[in-house]
Structures are given as C-alpha cells and as structure tokens.
Amino acid sequence: MKPLLCAALAVLAAACNTVPDLAVIGRYGPVDIDGELGVSSGSTVSTTSTEILGMEEDDSVISPRIDGSWLALDFWGAWFDTHFEGQGRLEADMDLGGEVISAGEPTDTTFDLALGTSAVTFDLIPGETFDLGIGVGFGYVDWDAEIVSQTSGNTIASAETFGMPLGAVRAAVSYDGLELSVVVCGFAVNVDEDEAEIFDGDAMLSWQFLHAGPMQAGIVGGYRLTKVAAKYDSGGSTIDADLELSGPYAGLTIAF
Predict the structure, then answer these.
(1) Rounded to 5 degrees, what are φ and ψ at 212?
(2) Mean pLDDT of the chain
(3) pLDDT at residue 192 is higher than 90
(4) pTM for this one?
(5) Pairing, β 237-255 against β 21-40
(6) Bridge partners (DSSP) listed for residue 150
(7) Are 240 and 48 in contact (CB under 8 A)?
(8) How many domains does the chain have?
(9) Does residue 176 belong to any structural domain of this protein?
(10) What CATH code is carried by the domain that includes residue 86?
(11) Residues 127, 171, 121: CA angle, nearest 5 degrees
(12) Is residue 73 part of a domain?
C-alpha cells in the first residue's frame, strides 16, 4: 500500500512541476459569407440568400488564437469579429412584428458576427509526431443584423447572443519545427421552438524557425470554416438564419 501511495505522490509532484506549453497566435485574412436569412410572422419562413442581399466578404478580419498543452491535455481558444454589408434585394417578404419589407424591394444590409470557441481535449493517441484527442468546449455567438428598405425605410433588425457546450476533436502532425493541426468543434441544441447549431473547423500549418532559449517564434497559415444556424422567436415573428463563414489566413506565432 505504501509503495503505491508513494508512486502516486511522485506522479502528482511531477505533474505539478510540469509547466504547460503555450503559444500565442495572431492571424489575419478575409472571411467570406454565404447562406440564408429569413423573417416571417407565419409558420413558414421564406429566406433570402446573402448573395442576393449583396453582402460582400470582410477582407480584414483579425482572429487571435491561443494553443496550449499540459501532460496528455491540449487546449485552445479562438475569436473573430466580422462585419458584412451590401446592397441588394429581397427574394421573399420579411415581417418582423408588423414591420414589413416586400420581396423585390432594394435593401441595405449590415451584419455583424462575433464568435468565440474554446476547448480542451485528452490525447487518445499521444506521440511526438502524431497525436489525436477528443474533448469538450464552449462556444459563444453574438450577432446583429439589420435590413433596411431603400424605398419605404422600413427596417428589419435582430440581435442575438447565445452560448452552448461543444464537442471537440484535435489532430496534429509534427516534424522538425513544422506542425499541421486540425481542430473541429460543434454542437446542436433544440429547446422548445428555438434551435441553434455551431460547427467550427480550423486547419493550421505552423513553422517555428526562430529560437531564443525557451521562446520560439514563427509563421502560420491556414483555413477556417464556420457554420452558425439559428431559428428563434423575436417580437412574435420567427427568425431563421443559416450562415457559413470561411476563408484563409496568415499570421505569426510565439511559443513559450
């Protein structure tokens, strides 16, 4: 019994003396938007595509990320804040609490979306060259949409903030200062008449080629794909959004 206790205490002491590895990553790149938006006071919601609304890509998105590892755990957190706007028209009537914009009317649209995700995974396949883990996380979504008719001035506007738990998977391949990592997290929830879904996938290649003692620095490049869908009641009307945001990025990383 005493040898087992001593061994357990030795493992615990070693874990406490192990310093987590940490990398701070700054990324920059364009984000394109694609999907559908709809608002209706009836049971059926007809939608209009972001392309018809004239919403163009946000070409200047800063998306910081923090990566870390400790023993058999990997953790990360990421954030981006996007802004889209454009001039177009509606493919279907929109009715929010009696404020109506008819199909075919020319419109001005603005849409802001902030997304934060974080997760921690446990290595099922640990290794110096390849590791694979699964875990849990949390997602935070904050959006603000406004559609204004150019003819009548009527305005359809909605803002929503919600958070939800996420399932997460992480895989990474490393060799001689290069690392290719893929992180995927997502979840779907349905409560009463409200629905929400998040999917976030991020593939990143990093090259750490500058070394100064325990500190390393390098460059990163990658591609991110995010899907956000929600259907909820607002002012007696149903709002239905199904959006996909994607784009490449490049940046710098500093690891400790």
Answers:
(1) -140, 85
(2) 88
(3) no
(4) 0.85
(5) antiparallel
(6) none
(7) no
(8) 1
(9) yes
(10) 2.40.128.90
(11) 85
(12) yes
Angle at 220 between CA 217 and CA 225, to 5 degrees: 145
The two tokens of residue 146 are 């406004």
- Of 31, 30, 46, residue with least CA distance to 242: 46
14, part of any domain: no
Determine the structural domain holding residue 157 and report its residue range.
20-255
Residue 191: partners with Cβ closer than 8 Å, 6 or more residues away: none
Asked if 82 and 55 count as a contact pair (C-beta separation under 8 A), the reply is: no
Letter for the amino acid at 253?
Answer: T
Q: What is the pLDDT of residues 215-232, one digit of tens each?
A: 899 999 999 999 999 888
Q: Report the alpha-carbon distance of residue 104 to residue 185 in Å, rounded.
A: 38
3 state SS for the chain: CHHHHHHHHHHHHHHHCCCCEEEEEEEEEEEEEEEEEEEECCCCCCCEECCCCCCCCEEEEECCEEEEEECCEEEEEEEEEEEEEEEEECCCCEEECCEEECCCCEEEEEEEEEEEEEEEEEEEECCCCEEEEEEEEEEEEEEEEEEEECCCCCEEEEEEEEEEEEEEEEEEEEECCEEEEEEEEEEEEEECCEEEEEEEEEEEEEEEEEEECCEEEEEEEEEEEEEEEEEEEECCEEEEEEEEEEEEEEEEEEEC
Does residue 11 lie within any of the structural domains?
A: no
